[in-house]
Design goal:
The structure is a homodimer. Chain A is of the alpha+beta class. Chain A is built from 17 helices and 20 strands. In chain A, helix 4 runs antiparallel to helix 9, helix 6 runs antiparallel to helix 7 and helix 8 packs antiparallel against helix 9.
Chain lengths: ~500, ~500
């Protein structure tokens, strides 16, 4: 028997984290902004539970009665497996299949929530994070895809990104299949198709040279490790490179599509060209040009379930990691068309498309640029010097709250010096002190905690102004709220 | 090998639920209101992960290497047990123990989030729900307890409950131990102490007669089942009943405490009287009287970890369940002092007290009274009659969104009749139709979807007014935003 130690060690589980008030406030502001855009497009909120039956998430391993290791799973008391959702799309498919008869079609919902991945954590890679999705279920129309692209661009701008600081890049699974067909790769050969698609996906990282090697005999990387190639013919390789890395990078939608239609082949290729043509006609008519949305044939998106257009939003400015190094930040939002997810339950194909914003990832970038900092309301700290008279401090706090301040009377048991330190630690703007002499005179001492810092950093006229302000004033108890308002407003000046 | 069926059935796990836009909007409004009050008292936001190590939650069964069945638990890849949090207090204790050196003291945080219970679900009893907690850690001062009571009352009023519609009821674990001591029940006899406390907890349900029987030889309920009694002496029983069900129900704090101090005994009794005296002196000085906060010696609170004052907020008005039957609704918020939670990790006693609001429970009551309904912004639905011209509809939707409307162009593939039905299903206020004749004239048809319902239900002057409004008007495309604003504002009139 493996006895537990009497005293557990207090520690966060690996890959999880605690978050403080600044980040929480910034995230709330960000979620509000996304919500406003999604709602303005007519999407309605839906909330599904954190847990779903594992089979409903499609996360049983094939042919074994055991869930995929990538999800957190456990058995219910009736032996059924439950898993924490790893995205918001699988629960949506379950919801749609369960309620299909009674929902308006198309069904348009947004959902924000945490998702969990039972994966090895790493720097900046957590096992619990927030996604914000919107999906249109029950429409095969390219207008539904085009709308998601416009909405993604609108959302990123609503979050404070300037036009040009992001790009939404679009491709189509059908277009990719069309170039494979043109290159003579059989779509029925799932393994080879997977290898080629994964190679195309590495274009950003490896460049044309690396991709060419991987499509051919293979590639030796810097460490000397050899990756086996796809062994395509030189003709096939050039065809694919012409597709994924054209000599002339043409941003005009019509010209780019005309060039692509000369490269791809077969029914898939035709379908892909038709899809993107319809989408980009809609984008052009609505005024969304290549400064916001572009075709990028290197976009693959890893998930198996996409069946048509796929897209992702990338940042165009350098992003630094925690160590200050510039990194390739990757996608901040992505999505595409998936027509088969509901069919898993019902057998009936329900066309659908969606977008997902990686809230936690994007938040870290926006916070680093101080674009979603939400200035916390400054605290007014009321010191308690005479415990027998503590109620007077708490009554004062009540009055100040009623007057709209954020006010706290000291609940600890330490003396004046520790209380002043506590006020500093809490970032309080003001400390209020009521000595016994003052009480007799009906007065309070108001101490400005921001002033010291101001004096140290101010220059020129402002320094003069600051010096003239007394750091500590006596104020009539009867007028405290009005006096505080005057002092705090002056500080903002 | 137990093969999975090829097609899973789409179904919610038992005890979980999906939630729609109205409830989500109402909850968001409710959470904002609670947050504003908690923040105004100087509490700062903290967020801990959904998962914690099972030992950190204190949820290993004694002497076995297996988690308590009441929590959802699974093993990490390194064999450590993780559990979904079942409340927000145990993660707080972990956080405080882990970060004690670097935090301001007292540490005051609030947290809102879901908690999970692996328990048998029932009507209105879910296995995932939301709590909103605030705690002061590192203060033994009764002012910290008093403040939570005032804040709970303020919060319930901020949520729309009138004074008198709720009561915050306070007791003390020490007072309970004091009456046990007076009744000759040894505090060292954990079993007997537990039996007596559970019996006191049933006062509301069983009344004095039932409690008297259970404290004595036992009780036969309506079904004939016999519950064993605590076998206390008649004197001891009368002493406890005098405590828990006084002949004269005295609401004046001072008089009630004076009466209680004559009943309880021992060091615990003294401590309980001193605690409640200090708390109620503070409440009185701050203007919180028995119309908001009262002593109730029947309050026990089930959790083992409370060590001092305990309290809960109850609704005073009848609440109906889904079947329309009036039910005893129980507590909507509760809390108390727990001085030993952090010591579990560090060995060091850290005095703490907290309050928790059962958001999901309270939300259901407030929604039934329509006190947190958040009127959804009405949708403007733009029909798409000519697919080749769909982009014009989407461009119009963009313009309307920029003008501040919630606007959606139809993304489905059905005809006009189905589109009108869809607009109804979505609760749209307005449908906009652009026929080819109109397009030639630069006009749009604006159809008022609310008017039919208005006509049916309006009486008197308003009926006259409504009749004069045309249900459908032609509007110049160039002035559409201004015209829509006029129409929608008039509808509110």
């Amino acid at each position: 028997m493996n006895k537990q130690p009497t005293r557990p060690r207090a520690r966060l589980p690996r890959g999880f984290r605690d978050r403080g008030p600044d980040e929480i406030a910034a995230e709330r502001k960000m979620l509000d902004a996304i919500r406003r855009v999604y709602e303005s497009y007519g999407f309605d909120a839906l909330e599904t539970p954190s847990l779903e039956y594992t089979d409903a998430l499609g996360k049983f391993l094939p042919d074994v009665d055991r869930p995929n290791e990538g999800v957190f799973s456990f058995q219910d008391e009736d032996e059924q497996w439950l898993s924490l959702r790893y995205d918001l799309t699988a629960p949506l498919a379950r919801y749609v299949a369960e309620n299909f008869q009674n929902m308006p079609k198309p069904f348009r919902r947004y959902q924000v929530g945490q998702v969990w991945r039972n994966e090895k954590p790493g720097p900046g890679r957590y096992r619990e994070f927030t996604q914000f999705d919107a999906d249109t279920v029950g429409s095969a129309s390219p207008s539904a895809d085009a709308e998601l692209l416009m909405m993604l661009a609108d959302t990123l701008e609503a979050l404070g990104l300037a036009r040009g600081e992001y790009l939404v890049k679009v491709n189509s699974r059908n277009l990719l299949d069309g170039v494979l067909e043109a290159a003579g790769v059989s779509l029925a050969d799932a393994e080879k198709r997977g290898t080629v698609l994964r190679t195309i996906d590495k274009m950003d990282r490896l460049g044309a040279r690396g991709v060419r090697a991987l499509l051919g005999e293979g590639r030796k990387d810097e460490s000397g490790d050899v990756t086996k190639g796809a062994n395509l013919s030189p003709d096939a390789i050039e065809r694919i490179l012409e597709f994924v890395a054209p000599e002339k990078d043409e941003n005009d939608f019509a010209l780019r599509l005309a060039a692509l239609s000369g490269i791809v082949a077969g029914a898939s290729g035709e379908k892909g060209i038709a899809e993107l043509s319809a989408i980009f006609r809609m984008l052009t008519d609505c005024g969304y040009g290549p400064d916001r949305i572009q075709i990028d044939t290197g976009i693959v998106r890893g998930l198996d379930y996409y069946t048509g257009p796929v897209f992702e939003a990338q940042l165009t400015f350098p992003v630094a990691n925690e160590a200050g190094e510039t990194i390739v930040f990757g996608s901040v939002g992505s999505g595409g068309r998936y027509d088969d997810l509901v069919a898993r339950f019902t057998g009936q194909t329900v066309p659908a498309c969606g977008v997902s914003i990686g809230v936690s990832r994007l938040l870290s970038v926006l916070r680093a640029r101080e674009q979603v900092s939400e200035p916390a309301e400054k605290l007014v700290m009321i010191l308690v010097l005479d415990k027998a008279e503590a109620a007077a401090s708490f009554k004062l706090a009540q009055e100040l709250r009623e007057a709209g301040f954020r006010a706290e009377a000291y609940t600890g048991e330490s003396g004046m010096k520790a209380q002043m330190k506590y006020a500093d630690r809490r970032g309080a703007a003001i400390a209020i002190i009521e000595g016994s002499d003052e009480r007799a005179r009906g007065e309070l001492t108001v101490k400005d905690l921001v002033l010291g810092a101001e004096l140290a950093k101010s220059v020129g006229d402002r320094a003069e102004w600051v010096k003239e302000q007394p750091a500590q004033v006596s104020v009539a108890r009867a007028n405290i709220a009005a006096s505080l308002r005057t002092i705090m407003d002056a500080r903002k000046g």
